[in-house]
From TrEMBL:
Biological process, per Gene Ontology: methylation
PANTHER family: CARNOSINE N-METHYLTRANSFERASE
Enzyme class of the recorded protein, top EC level: transferase
InterPro entries: CARME, SAM-dependent_MTases_sf
Molecular function as annotated in GO: carnosine N-methyltransferase activity
Keywords: Methyltransferase, S-adenosyl-L-methionine, Transferase
Full protein name: carnosine N-methyltransferase
Length: 463
């Protein structure tokens, strides 16, 4: 059993998880979560996640090599610049060592057939310098300008935690390479770090295990002189105290956190709220927060995606929190530089939106097998079909609510939803279904799922 954490199965919610060799197994729903380099990967489809991560790393390596080769073809025409250009080539090549190490760390978990059937061109347009390099240099490179930026943000985080929360537990969503979480570990008893990026968590894992990484900052433009084109950093944790042992980090989707219900005092979002529509995961934030727990946000509202329909304004975000039983107890703006380097000829300044939302006390909903329900809002059913030489067959039905919550292998729940009409009880519905299906289920688990659907306003209790 995993006794020292509050980890739960992100699919069924069970906290009776078992560690078997390099896996975490949930006996209740039989889900398997691998541990790579002792990093738990709590995602819905670990098979696809690991293989896609490997493909993205290999494609990145391939893209960099092709980029170098295409530039080297033009070297004969660059009189007087060969020395500088060779420095850039060397720096890209040295940075590739890190990506090769990442790729090698998951290689043995990869399925060759999946790789062969995948579209290897989908990562063709990924950035040549990944965000993980930018963040790890900012977080752990200790340049004066980076420390100023980190100090501005973290001093605000610490102030808000001390003012509005309890120094017992905090989760950083989209934690990146973890500097803010490490700083918070000095004052908070238990710190949890979640990110969906293997690259980010790989670097955080190395930092917390006293490894160092040699990173070359490549400035092929926007600097004044040849001396500024390349800066070398040895990124590592400096003077980390023993309190970092209270940090638990894992890979997960913010929409399916492996955290027990109502177990956290604080959830912190630093430069994350504009990465994904808050409507997709606010119910999950509410689920893991204790009553009177707080959500702390710091960051711009820049939105990297193109569709304007998903670019929700701060006033709209505040309304979403209020509709989900939160009250906004603090709000202001903080200007500071973003990823600034003193050798650059320009800099980005963000006007960061800061707010604290407190989870209010809810009226408790009591449900049992005799409860009568009605459907409050429509749901969606995802059907997964396997196609092979023998034809096709359906192997999985998943229930997806309007707010983005996913319930895997939900055949029974789906059939129950089809019968709900606001007049008959859960018990009566099961009796009807038993006439046509051989049902196998645990009543407590069934009521737990229905309770979650009521909580996220998909279902409504009639009586």
């Amino acid at each position: 059993m995993i006794n020292s954490t509050i980890y739960t199965c992100p699919i069924c919610g069970s906290n009776q998880l078992e560690i078997v060799k390099e896996e975490i197994i949930c006996p209740q729903c039989e889900s398997h979560y691998p541990k790579i380099n002792d990093i738990p990967i709590f995602v819905e489809n670990t098979f696809s996640y690991i293989n896609d991560t490997y493909i993205s790393l290999e494609c990145h390596i391939k893209n960099i090599r092709e980029y170098i080769e295409s530039n080297q073809k033009m070297f004969p025409f660059q009189n007087g610049r060969i020395s500088t250009l060779n420095k850039i080539v060397d720096s890209y090549t040295q940075n590739l060592v890190l990506y090769e190490q990442m790729s090698e760390s998951i290689k043995k978990y990869v399925n060759i057939n999946y790789i062969l059937q995948s579209d290897l061109n989908r990562y063709k347009n990924d950035p040549l310098i990944g965000k993980e390099l930018l963040y790890v240099v900012r977080d752990w490179g200790y340049s004066n300008e980076s420390e100023d930026e980190i100090s501005s943000i973290y001093s605000m985080i610490e102030k808000l935690i001390k003012k509005f929360s309890i120094l017992d537990s905090i989760l950083f969503i989209g934690c990146g390479t973890g500097r803010f979480a490490c700083e918070a570990s000095q004052i908070v008893k238990k710190v949890y770090c979640s990110d969906l990026s293997y690259r980010m968590i790989y670097l955080l894992d190395g930092i917390l295990n006293n490894k160092s990484f040699n990173i070359h900052e490549i400035n092929d433009s926007n600097v004044y002189s040849i001396d500024d084109v390349i800066r070398n950093f040895t990124v590592k944790a400096s003077n980390l105290s023993s309190t970092v042992k209270n940090i638990n980090y894992f890979i997960s989707d913010v929409r399916q956190l492996p955290i027990e219900d109502e177990s956290l005092n604080t959830v912190a979002s630093v430069y994350f709220i504009d990465v994904m529509n808050i409507e997709n995961y606010i119910q999950e934030i509410s689920r893991v927060l204790k009553t009177n727990g707080v959500f702390i946000n710091i960051g711009p509202i820049g939105y990297p995606y193109s569709n304007f329909v998903h670019k929700i304004l701060p006033t709209e975000i505040k309304q979403i929190f209020k509709k989900n039983n939160f009250e906004i107890v603090f709000e202001e703006f903080l200007e500071c530089t973003y990823m600034h380097s003193n050798i650059k000829l320009s800099k980005t300044i963000h006007k960061n939106w800061i707010f604290v939302a407190r989870k209010k006390t809810e009226n408790q909903v009591s449900i049992n097998i005799d409860s009568v329900l009605s459907i409050n809002t429509s749901v969606f059913i995802e059907t997964k079909v396997e196609i092979n030489n023998h034809g096709s067959s359906v192997f999985e039905h998943n229930l997806i609510t309007k707010n983005g919550s996913v319930y895997e292998h939900s055949d029974l729940i789906i059939e129950i939803l089809k019968q709900i009409n606001g007049k008959i009880s859960i018990k009566q519905i099961i009796e009807v279904l038993s006439e046509n299906f051989e049902l196998e289920f645990e009543a407590d688990y069934l009521l737990s799922v229905i309770g979650k659907l009521i909580k996220d306003k998909t279902l409504e209790l009639v009586q």
